[in-house]
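Following up on my earlier thread - several people asked me to post the actual chain instead of describing it. Fair enough. Here it is, all 202 residues.
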Amino acid sequence: DEGKRKWIYPKKPFGRFHKARLVVSAILLLILVLTPFIKVNGHPFMLFDFLNRKFILFGILFGPHDFHLLVIAMISLIVFVILFTAVFGRIFCGWACPQTIFMEMVFRKIEYWIEGDSKDQRKLKSATWTGAKFFKKTAKQLIFFAIAFFISNIFLSYIIGIDELLKIVTDPPSEHLQGLFAITVFSGIFYFVFSNFREQAC
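Reply from S.P.:
Thanks for posting it. Predicted structure:
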């Protein structure tokens, strides 16, 4: 009634539908991570280079003169997602939504692994601070940020290309301070959403 946040401790899911969701999530995550490495005729399979106004969809290059085609394609994609969600909302939100996949199939799995099921998490929260509690909480947050940083780099590879990303990663950080700052900020936002904001995003 006061509008205050209530922290949710969901029970660890199980069953055949959850196993099926795990398989679907693993496939979608693999597609997300591996797509930047796929090339067609020397071009990335997907690229959204907003700075240079260069877009590649399914290996087809779109330049500034093709902007109207890109806009139509993006509008069609957005309308499809909205219509699909309206008609099959539970299927999309439960099986294909990026928020759900990252939250339930990545970050929460790590939470279960480190802190245990919902009962154990509540018990740990109310417990006094000990070395074990400090280790668990710190380890969880460090792993969360590492995953957020990795995912941010994957998303960046869709914007600048995997070759440019690998070059930035292997070069000294001092040569790419702007990029390092941007990726750190994006990682921080991603980390905040999945470590703190969580289901409120929906």
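The chain has a mean pLDDT of 87. That should answer part of your original question.
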